[in-house]
Specification:
This protein is of the alpha+beta class. An 8-stranded mixed β-sheet has the order 21-16-22-13-28-32-14-33. Strands 1, 2, 5, 7, 8 and 10 form a 6-stranded mixed β-sheet that branches. It has a 4-stranded antiparallel β-sheet with strand order 4-3-6-9. Strand 7 and strand 8 form a beta hairpin.
Length: 774
C-alpha cells in the first residue's frame, strides 16, 4: 500500500475501509443480499504537519540589518473556526516543539493559524516572545504544501492581500514573490532552508511583516476602535465636545468607529492613521524657495510638470531660516532650539558632549576632515542632540534600512565635515536655462572657463541625521551615507589632491543601488549647493582674454547676470528632472509590486513676515515652551534638559511638496490644502514604516505627537498653546487628507503665498499616498 506523502496512516486506513465497504456493496453475486447501510460511517481525518517559522533582528550590523531565521517553540496551531485570531481551547490546538514543528489532525484540509503567545520562544533569538502574534496559512497553501506546511509572516501576508484586494491565492503568492524578487515556488517555503540572496530577501520581508502582524494583534487584544482616530474622514472624532480646540474645525459627528475585528486589525496594521505601507521612499531635498517662487514658474517647468502628474500638499510649512534646523526637524521632529547653521558639535558640553572619534592626520586620507568649525550662534544652544529619538535609529531598531545620497562630496572625506575646495578637480561652465537638461549633460557655456571644485558643495547642515549623536555613532553610519551623481565636478573627482580616493570609489552610488535594488526604506537625496537651488559662488579662470571670471551658480548662466535669480531655479529644476528620470528608469521603480514614492520638497520657504508658525511649531514665537516627557506614572511633564530650547521652533512659511508613486492605479492630481509641517512628515513616515502606535502618544518622536487632542489633553504643560486661536492649524496631523475642512473655514496661509486663502474643503478628499483609487 502506497501512502501519499504528508497524509497520516490513520487517514489512509479509514479511507481504505470505506472504499472496501463500497466495493463489497457493488460486487459479489447477483444473489448476494444487499448489506445494511452503515448509519454512522467512520469519519475521515487529515493530519496536517509543518512548522511555524520565525525571524529575529540581530543588532549591531555595520551594513544593512541582520535578520536571523528560526522557529517558534510552544506556539499553538489550530483551525480558527470563529475567526477571532485566538486558538481557543474548544478548537483543540496543538503546540509546536523545539524545532517549531506541529502535527494536527482535522476533519479536512483547512486554513490554520499559529497563535504565538508570550510563553512561546523564538529560536532565532533564544528569547521569549515579547508580544502575542498570529500568522495564518490559507487552505490553498495547506493543500499545496501537504508534505510540509510552513506558517509564517509570508503566508499570513498572502491571505491578507487576498482579502485586501479581493484577489486569489495564486495571484497574491506570485505578487509577493515578484515584490521581493524570489521565485514563486520558493516564497512560501521554510526560510530556514533557503539560501543566498533568496533567504536574505525572504528574511527582510518576513521580519517587517512579523512586526506588522504583531501590531495587528496588539490592536485586537486591547480593543482598539477602527480605524485610527486620525484616519477617520472628517477629522478626529475624539475632539467632539472637547474644550480648548478649534470648534470651527472639530468633528461634530458621532464617532462612527466600533471595536476592531481580527480581519480589520490585519488591514489596519498596514495603514496606520490611513498611511499605507511603502517599501521605499526617496526624498529629494531642495533649498530656500517658497511656493511663490516655484509654483507655475517659467524657470521650473519640470517640477511643475511633476506636481501636476502626481499629488501635492499645497499648504506645507518649514521651520525657518536657515537650513540646519529644518533638516534636524526632518530627521526627528524638532529643532531643539537651533536657529543657525553652526556645525553639529557647537556648544556640545556636559551631557551633550560629542562622543565621536575625530579623524586624525594618521588616518589615511582624512587629514582634511577636522571637526573644528566656527560656531555662529549667539546663545549657547547645543547642536549635538543626545537621548532623543529620530527616524534613522527608529528604522534600524525594527530591521529596516536607510540611506542618504549626497552629491559632490570629496572622495574619501569624512561626511561629518563639510566639503572642501579642490583645485585639482575641475569642471566645465554649464549653461542652465529653460529647456536644457540637467546633470553633467548640460550645455557648455564659456568653453574657456575652468571651474575648480569650490568648498561647501556638500554641507553637514543639509543632512537630516547629522545633529543626532546616536545616528553618527550608529554601526551603519558609514555604510548608509552614500553618493549621488549628476554633479558638475563628477568626471574629475578622481583627480583629487586633498584626499586618498577609496578603492572602487563610486561617485554615483544611487545609480548603482537603483540597478541592484539595494535601496533603503527611507532615502534622503541631498543635491549639492549648486543643484539644490541654494547657490554658492564659484570662482573660475579662463584661457581667453578675461581672467578670473566668476561663475556664480546662484545667479549667473553663461557668465551673464540674471537679475531675476531664475538661473539657480532652472539649474535645480533640471537636476530634479535628472533624479526623477533616473529613479523611474530603474528596475526597482518598474517593479510595480513594490510600493515606491518620490517626494520633491524644500527645507524652507522665504517668508520674512506674517503668519509663519504652523503645525506643531511654537505658537506666536513663544518663549515659554519646553519639550514634554512621559513619566513612569503615565503623566506628562516639561523636559528641562534642552538648553535654550525656546530659541527655536518659529515656523517659516510655505513651500512646494510633491509626491510621485510607481503605483499604476494610484490616484493622480490630488491636492491636499490642509496645513502640514516637517513634523507632519515625520509623523507620516512613522506611520508608513510602522515605527509608532497611534494609541500611544509617547511612541511619536518629539513634536510629531502634538496632535490637537494631545495638546488639549496636556495644555497645562504646553503653555505656548494656551493663546492659540486655531488649534487645528497649530497642531500636527499625518499627511493623509483625512480632515475635511468645513465649508465656512478659511484656511490660514503664510505671507509668501500670493493666491487668495482657500475657503472650505478641497474638491478631492483622496489620500495623497493612496495606492489605488477607490
Amino acid at each position: 500500500m502506497n501512502i501519499p506523502k504528508g497524509v497520516s496512516l490513520g487517514f489512509t486506513l479509514t479511507a481504505l475501509a470505506a472504499a472496501t465497504s463500497m466495493l463489497a456493496a457493488c460486487g459479489g453475486s447477483d444473489n448476494a443480499a444487499t448489506p445494511p447501510v452503515d448509519q454512522n460511517p467512520p469519519a475521515t481525518t487529515v493530519t496536517l504537519k509543518g512548522v511555524v517559522a520565525a525571524t529575529a533582528l540581530k543588532a549591531g550590523s555595520t551594513t544593512d540589518p541582520t535578520i536571523l531565521a528560526g522557529y517558534y517553540q510552544n506556539a499553538k496551531v489550530c483551525v480558527d473556526a470563529n475567526n477571532n485570531g485566538v486558538c481557543d481551547s474548544g478548537e483543540a490546538p496543538v503546540t509546536t516543539d523545539a524545532k517549531g514543528a506541529f502535527s494536527i489532525t482535522v476533519s479536512a484540509a483547512a486554513a490554520l493559524i499559529a497563535d504565538i503567545g508570550t510563553d512561546a520562544t523564538n529560536t532565532a533569538s533564544g528569547a521569549k516572545v515579547a508580544s502575542r502574534n498570529v500568522f495564518r496559512v490559507s487552505v490553498d497553501q495547506v493543500k499545496e504544501q501537504s508534505a510540509g506546511i510552513v506558517i509564517s509572516p509570508l503566508s499570513a501576508e498572502v491571505i491578507r492581500s487576498v482579502e485586501a484586494n479581493g484577489s486569489d491565492y495564486a495571484t497574491e503568492k506570485a505578487n509577493l514573490a515578484t515584490r521581493i524578487g524570489v521565485p514563486s515556488a520558493t516564497i512560501l517555503t521554510d526560510v530556514n532552508t533557503a539560501t543566498g540572496t533568496t533567504q536574505t530577501a525572504m528574511l527582510a520581508e518576513a521580519n517587517a511583516l512579523s512586526n506588522r502582524f504583531a501590531y495587528a494583534i496588539t490592536k485586537l487584544d486591547r480593543g482598539d476602535l477602527y480605524p485610527d482616530a486620525l484616519a477617520v474622514p472628517g477629522g478626529d472624532p475624539r475632539l467632539k465636545g472637547l474644550t480648548g480646540v478649534t470648534q470651527a474645525t472639530a468633528n461634530t459627528a458621532a464617532d462612527p468607529r466600533a471595536k476592531i475585528t481580527f480581519a480589520q486589525s490585519q488591514q489596519a496594521a498596514f495603514a496606520l492613521e490611513g498611511v499605507p505601507r511603502y517599501d521605499h521612499v526617496f526624498v529629494v531635498m531642495l533649498e530656500n524657495k517658497a511656493t511663490l517662487s516655484i509654483l507655475n514658474s517659467a524657470f521650473a517647468p519640470k517640477i511643475n510638470g511633476y506636481l501636476k502628474a502626481g499629488n501635492q500638499l499645497t499648504s506645507y510649512y518649514a521651520t525657518g531660516n536657515p537650513s540646519e534646523p529644518n533638516y534636524t526637524a526632518l530627521g526627528g521632529a524638532d529643532d531643539f532650539g537651533i536657529t543657525d547653521d553652526s556645525q553639529w558639535n557647537c556648544d556640545a558640553t556636559g551631557a551633550n558632549a560629542v562622543q565621536d572619534t575625530e579623524p586624525t592626520a594618521s588616518q589615511p586620507g582624512l587629514k582634511n576632515s577636522p571637526f573644528t568649525s566656527p560656531c555662529t550662534q549667539a546663545a549657547a544652544v547645543n547642536h549635538n542632540i543626545t537621548g532623543k529619538p529620530n527616524l534613522f535609529t527608529a528604522l534600524t531598531s525594527v530591521g529596516l534600512n536607510w540611506r542618504t545620497y549626497n552629491e559632490s562630496t570629496n572622495p574619501g572625506q569624512d561626511l561629518r565635515t563639510d566639503g572642501i575646495a579642490d583645485a585639482a578637480v575641475t569642471a566645465k561652465d554649464y549653461v542652465y536655462a529653460p529647456g536644457t537638461v540637467g546633470g553633467n549633460s548640460a550645455t557648455v557655456g564659456d568653453a574657456n572657463l575652468v571651474l575648480p571644485m569650490p568648498a561647501g558643495l556638500y554641507k553637514t547642515k543639509h543632512h537630516p541625521g547629522m545633529a543626532y549623536q546616536n545616528v553618527r555613532s550608529a554601526p551603519e553610519w558609514k555604510f548608509s551615507n552614500r553618493t549621488v551623481g549628476g554633479g558638475q565636478w563628477d568626471a574629475n573627482l578622481k583627480n583629487t589632491s586633498m584626499y586618498t580616493v577609496p578603492a572602487n570609489y563610486d561617485a554615483d552610488q544611487l545609480g548603482t543601488d537603483l540597478a541592484s535594488g539595494n535601496i533603503g526604506a527611507l532615502n534622503f537625496i541631498m543635491p549639492d549647493q549648486c543643484d539644490d537651488m541654494h547657490g554658492i559662488s564659484v570662482k573660475g579662470t579662463t584661457t581667453g582674454a578675461v581672467a578670473g571670471t566668476a561663475s556664480d551658480c546662484s545667479s549667473v548662466a553663461n557668465n551673464v547676470p540674471n537679475a531675476t535669480g531664475g538661473a539657480i531655479i532652472t539649474r535645480g529644476d533640471n537636476y530634479v528632472d535628472y533624479l526623477v528620470k533616473k529613479i523611474q528608469a530603474s528596475p526597482l521603480w518598474k517593479n510595480q509590486q513594490k510600493r515606491i514614492a518620490i517626494v520633491l520638497m524644500f527645507d524652507e520657504g522665504n517668508a520674512t513676515s506674517g503668519l509663519n508658525s504652523c503645525c506643531g511649531w511654537n505658537v506666536a514665537n513663544s518663549t515659554v515652551a519646553n519639550p514634554l516627557k512621559k513619566n513612569a506614572d503615565g503623566t506628562w511633564s516639561a523636559d528641562l534638559t534642552v538648553n535654550n530650547y525656546t530659541k527655536g521652533n518659529r515656523g517659516h512659511g510655505q513651500s512646494i511638496f510633491g509626491i510621485l508613486t510607481n503605483q499604476p492605479n494610484a490616484p493622480k492630481g490630488v491636492s491636499d490644502s490642509d496645513a502640514y509641517s516637517h513634523f507632519s512628515l515625520v509623523r507620516t513616515f512613522q506611520d508608513m514604516f510602522q515605527l509608532a502606535d497611534p494609541a500611544k502618544d509617547e511612541t511619536y518622536m518629539n513634536r510629531s505627537k502634538y496632535t490637537e487632542q494631545f495638546i488639549a489633553s496636556n495644555i497645562i504643560n504646553l503653555p505656548e498653546y494656551a493663546g492659540s486661536s486655531d488649534t487645528h492649524f497649530d497642531s500636527v496631523r499625518p499627511t493623509n487628507h483625512a480632515h475635511v475642512i468645513p465649508a465656512t473655514y478659511t484656511q490660514k496661509q503664510s505671507a509668501d503665498v500670493s493666491a487668495a486663502a482657500q475657503v472650505g474643503a478641497d474638491a478631492n478628499q483622496t489620500n495623497v499616498w493612496a495606492l489605488k483609487s477607490k
